[in-house]
Amino acid sequence: MTSAVDALAGGPVFGLPLPELWFSLVFALLGTFLFLDGFDFGAGAIFATLSDDEAREAVLSAIGPFWDGNEVWLVVFGGALFAAFPSVYAGLFSRHYLLMFGILGALIFRGLAPEMYEQRHDARWRRWWGRSFVAGSVLAPFLLGAFAGNWLVGTPRSLTLIGVVTGVAVTALTVVSGAAFLRLKARNALPERVTDIGVGAVATYLLAAVATLGVLATRLPTGVDAVLSPPVVALVVASVALGVGYGVALRRGANLAALAAAAGLTYGLIAVVAVLMYPRIDPATGATVGDAVVSTLPLNLMSIGAALLLPLVAAYFVVLYSAFSGPITAEEAY
């Protein structure tokens, strides 16, 4: 037993660059949450544009089997950040306490509202809970984007210009995913303007992303050089191509391809944040990935555990999405 512990404490397993892998994993988990729960948020925003009860029921039926499972990825992201970089977790959440409570409050309303909406058919009751559903669905990604923007530039303030533009970009991105997902799941149960909303949202996202990079050019230590670095430029060009492809696919009814393009846009945004931040993980303190990561023994143990558990979590989601694949039917309800 002692020799095994000594071996695990002596260096990273298989000589892997574990601090960098955990840095990548933390952002990959954040991207997974932003995409999977993002189309739920987007569906909630689109819900506000629908006045027909049948169309609104179709939105709720489309996301019903998935939204609570999708939120698991936010917990996994927070857990991974806490496990590998506990000082960063503590610093971020203490500096942005109000944003964290805002995000949690929005998630509570987003989750509670559909349940309450279905309890009664009174017009006033449904109007109130429908608005709560929309508010939670819009505020959650906006505040999450504000949190990410503030994290990237290392500001301790909650309300900042970078937070606002990043929040707008993330909110628009969730509508992009939501429109594609609803077109895939609800199809003819929703009006054609959902397609128009998706196309408008992708244009809004690309403009907001450019505005975000413009603000970052004035706020990051290396300024324009960081924003115009080859990896960032390549990701921006790829995002524009994906945005155009998304619009074409959605117009042609290739809804799965449109959803895949939305996924590419989401992970591309997270990759830009990670590239601009690395090697720092807490710009507010200047802590790098190597400075903030836990010691070798717990890092090795966590890596082994993650290698065993994450495939199981992924398998669960494969089963979930397979069980509820295909478009919703008229008989299905939330």
UniProtKB/TrEMBL annotation:
It is a multi-pass membrane protein. It comes from the Archaea. GO terms for biological process: aerobic electron transport chain. GO terms for molecular function: electron transfer activity; oxidoreductase activity, acting on diphenols and related substances as donors, oxygen as acceptor. It is found in: Cell membrane. Keywords: Cell membrane, Membrane, Transmembrane, Transmembrane helix. Its main location: membrane. The chain crosses the membrane at residues 21-51, 72-90, 133-153, 159-182, 194-216, 228-249, 256-281, 301-324. The keyword Aminoacyl-tRNA synthetase does not apply. GO terms for cellular component: cytochrome complex; plasma membrane. NCBIfam families: cydB (TIGR00203). This is Cytochrome D ubiquinol oxidase subunit II. It comes from Halorubrum tropicale. The lineage of its organism: Archaea, Methanobacteriati, Methanobacteriota, Stenosarchaea group, Halobacteria.
